[in-house]
């Protein structure tokens, strides 16, 4: 039953990331590198939810899926006219976040299995 929760959450988060990433840019400037932290956290959570929602998928593919989604979003930002630009550093933050999120999901799964046995 929980697997559907993680799957639905992953899909909804992907939609939210896409919508927020493609909305028109604002003039707000946050702290230095704050946007990279946001990318790291968003794609970390996305990979975490994908890994828990589809546990039979190998981690490398979970990471690739999340990272490729992020690259697609960056490309879309580069070709739209909403004041957004594509960024290699954002894509790297996405990849690193996805790697941490996917790995963390496996650690949590193993700990959960140990507790239940």
From TrEMBL:
Q: Which organism is it from?
A: Algimonas ampicilliniresistens
Membrane-spanning residues: 37-54, 59-79, 91-109
Which Pfam families is this protein grouped with? VanZ
* Keyword Membrane appears in the UniProt entry: yes
InterPro entries according to UniProt: VanZ-like
Question: Keyword Transmembrane: yes or no?
Answer: yes
Per UniProt, the keywords (alphabetical) are:
Membrane, Transmembrane, Transmembrane helix
Task: State the protein's name.
Answer: VanZ superfamily protein
Ranges for the VanZ-like domain? 30-107
